[in-house]
Recover the amino acids of this structure.
């Protein structure tokens, strides 16, 4: 039974690519739930199945077996009609690792947001312009930056544009797929603090895909550990990272160059440039 506070309910998700000798099981038997108000992290090394699992959650990849329901909507069923695709977009949006690759490098920021709002019939022209200004204020983009194209912005500013675009349709869930991995550590901390502020303002929940346990520790309350497509450990983020039960989780934790991510306030000091 799926309760009203359940954001994601996944049961026995399996994804197989290829056939015969070329068959590859990317995700095998993944079952978990995510509840409202508790951000969920999915961690694991490259090739562990994190992004494949995220794509099934968003309905971008059809499972070989199993099912996944997001906010009461069955994401294993294809969204064929335009209206169905728009409704699905209002459920989930994704922020990718490479903001430059996910944005038109020649399209001004205001135009990026205007296009999304037009597709979703978000009011008249005046209402859309007000919404664009609201979104830019929310993610910390200045008036001057709004008229620039992504190629004229820094990496952190581009990611702010990507976050604003994801927020434009007021989704119930935002999937952050290594969303700060391409940024240097001081900009990472600024974006993480921004995401926290945005969540406080909008109530949107986050599903975080990451190999970086410091980032996961900062932004999530619950975590899933994936190894070769299988969930080997899951639970509260603090408990799993501080007292891992599975050997693979311990290896992930111990591979972090510094264990200072555990110390309270470290990321905040980095964001302010005072943690040299």
């Amino acid at each position: 039974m799926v309760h009203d506070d359940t954001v994601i309910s996944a049961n026995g998700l399996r994804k197989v690519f290829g056939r015969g000798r070329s068959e590859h099981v990317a995700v095998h038997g993944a079952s978990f739930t995510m509840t409202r108000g508790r951000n969920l992290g999915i961690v694991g090394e490259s090739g562990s199945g994190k992004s494949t699992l995220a794509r099934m959650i968003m309905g971008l990849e059809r499972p070989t077996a199993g099912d996944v329901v997001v906010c009461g909507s069955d994401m294993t069923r294809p969204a064929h009609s335009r209206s169905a695709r728009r409704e699905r977009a209002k459920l989930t949006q994704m922020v990718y690792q490479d903001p430059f690759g996910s944005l038109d490098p020649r399209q001004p920021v205001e135009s990026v947001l205007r296009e999304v709002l037009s597709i979703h019939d978000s009011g008249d022209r005046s209402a859309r312009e007000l919404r664009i200004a609201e979104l830019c204020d929310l993610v910390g983009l200045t008036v001057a930056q709004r008229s620039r194209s992504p190629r004229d912005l820094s990496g952190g500013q581009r990611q702010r544009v990507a976050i604003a675009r994801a927020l434009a349709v007021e989704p119930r869930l935002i999937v952050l797929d290594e969303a700060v991995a391409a940024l240097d550590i001081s900009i990472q901390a600024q974006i993480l603090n921004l995401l926290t502020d945005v969540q406080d303002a909008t109530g949107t929940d986050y599903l975080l895909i990451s190999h970086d346990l410091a980032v996961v520790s900062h932004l999530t309350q619950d975590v899933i550990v994936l190894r070769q497509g299988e969930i080997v450990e899951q639970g509260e983020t603090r408990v799993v990272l501080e007292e891992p039960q599975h050997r693979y989780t311990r290896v992930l934790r111990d591979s972090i160059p510094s264990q200072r991510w555990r110390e309270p306030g470290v990321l905040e000091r980095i964001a302010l440039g005072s943690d040299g």
